Amino acid sequence: MVFEDESSDDTSSLSYMHSTSSTDGLNHVSFILEDPDYQGLELDLMVFYEKHGKASEGLVAFEGTDTGRRFLACAEPEGQNSGFVEWVDHRWPPTMQNALLKLWAMVEYSKSARVNDNIESALTIHHLIEEKNKLEANYDKSELVADVKAEMAKKDAETQKLNQKYELMVNLTRAQATVIQNLKLKNVKEKELLSEARMKLGSQNAELTNSKEKLTQEKLELKLQVADMLKGKEKHSEEKGQLELQITGLVKGKEKHREEKGRLELQIAELMKGEEKLKQKVKGI
């Protein structure tokens, strides 16, 4: 069976709370549930009732939307007992409250049906007594015994039906207790999963922060490397310009050297011609 969630409000999470509102801070909890895991004087929390300063008693509520909630109550005997002190568990989530309301409505309906059945049984018994009186007045003993046996058989059948309805109500109550326990365990597991998810998210956030810082540092180093490369490129351009100037000077020097070499060759040729002429003159002498 699936119940519709009639509320989506979120509630704050507290490990321990003191209720003062008119709906949550009750002065009296009518019904309690015996829980061997939470009963007796509450000495761990060291919560003392302000009127007499004595330790409070740990109990578990078994009423309405507070079913399954632990609370502290006055541990004094009846007559001196001041009732409710404060809640230990905060209010159930709206989905669980709606489920509890549905379950309690089913229980109340079952109780009402049981009361109606008891009323019908009482009326039936009353009618049977009246009919018995009439039979005693109108029939002899043998006929009366047969009629009474028939009515008793009918009554036994009705009693059996009532017992079956009673067993159904008992099973329903047990199912309700099981559902409440399962919802409580589910709520605890969801809290644990939420805590683990928060821790994992925090770890991932820290890793992302470290990665961001590392990327920023690498980006800065890359900018410095690019700046060094630009400076090297400018220096290389300057050196290239100086080399080109040197090459141009060398080319010009080479051409000048060629021109001087040509002049020297001409001078040498003229000197050789003059030497030949001088030799011929020496031979003629």
TrEMBL record:
Keywords: Coiled coil. Residues 125-225, 254-281 form a coiled coil. This is Uncharacterized protein.
